[in-house]
């Protein structure tokens, strides 16, 4: 299979568009090799045209010519979509099927696709649209290393990729897939703190975002524990420890951790 297989993207909403944008705009995937399908294409036609990819309401046609099928519909919409593909015989050539649906297991996918369909579950996030994504992959039974590699090749240009056992997928969803929303709220709060202390809002947002990027990059690039990096910032009797204690008074650690736990619990029930 080529490095840029014929790709069908079913569902062209937030994630279908984020992945398409990452592939075409940021990583040079040939737009002509991507065919997206959605039930109401008019709404997203402008975005598809801007990317140069074909968008129609004919999922069966997109799948018939595809070597890789990326399922980007809501979990509740997946069963009907797969039933339609099966009824039309669109998966008879056994393309690699990659689902990003939260809470939707490989067993469910296997039960709703023709026997022997190679299946991979993936959990990306919206930063994939600018190549700063995090995607976790879990391979279905019988998927070869080459097929898993094909899925990896698809997501690697969009950011980091990690393989994990499927049992971790709900926690992955709660942490790295829902996580951007949590970080946007935290970023907004950081900026509000700056505004409260007199910074213009645009300046506060830029400082908050660049600081967050720098802190996250230090964790990834140094491999040091976040607690050790925090200690480096915290001068005895200085301002940082004063701020940290105020955050602890608000139970920042348990509030954030419980948010991930709750998102994980809900993700498990979405399929
Ligand atoms: N949003 C996120 O940050 C993340 C989402 N996910 C997962 O990605 C999937 C998509 O989420 P998201 O992009 O946010 O959802 P959206 O609702 O934005 O997009 C889903 C799209 O699927 C289309 N659709 C629905 N049914 C069909 C069908 N039968 N055939 C073709 N297209 C169809 C809908 O459009 P139309 O009505 O025109 O058909 C819609 O645009 C979900 O399963 C979610 O769990 C995973 C990681 C992160
Ligand atoms: O909120 C959701 O259900 C989806 C899955 C992970 C991110 N967004």
UniProtKB/TrEMBL annotation:
Pathway annotation: Amino-acid biosynthesis; L-proline biosynthesis; L-proline from L-glutamate 5-semialdehyde: step 1/1
Chief site of localization: cytoplasm
Gene name of the encoded protein: proC
HAMAP family: P5C_reductase (MF_01925)
Domain Pyrroline-5-carboxylate reductase dimerisation span(s) in chain numbering: 166-268
Catalytic activity: L-proline + NADP(+) = (S)-1-pyrroline-5-carboxylate + NADPH + 2 H(+); L-proline + NAD(+) = (S)-1-pyrroline-5-carboxylate + NADH + 2 H(+)
Protein's organism: Geothrix edaphica
Protein name listed in UniProt: Pyrroline-5-carboxylate reductase
InterPro entries found in the cross-reference section: 6-PGluconate_DH-like_C_sf, NAD(P)-bd_dom_sf, P5C_Rdtase_cat_N, P5CR-like_CS, P5CR_dimer, Pyrroline-COOH_reductase
EC annotation from Swiss-Prot or TrEMBL: 1.5.1.2
NADP found in the keyword field: yes
Pfam assignment, any one: F420_oxidored
Leader peptide range in chain numbering: none
Function of the protein: Catalyzes the reduction of 1-pyrroline-5-carboxylate (PCA) to L-proline.
Enzyme class, spelled out: oxidoreductase
Domain Pyrroline-5-carboxylate reductase catalytic N-terminal: from-to ranges: 7-103
Keywords: Amino-acid biosynthesis, Cytoplasm, NADP, Oxidoreductase, Proline biosynthesis
Family label: Belongs to the pyrroline-5-carboxylate reductase family.
Subcellular location field: Cytoplasm
PROSITE patterns, per the entry: P5CR
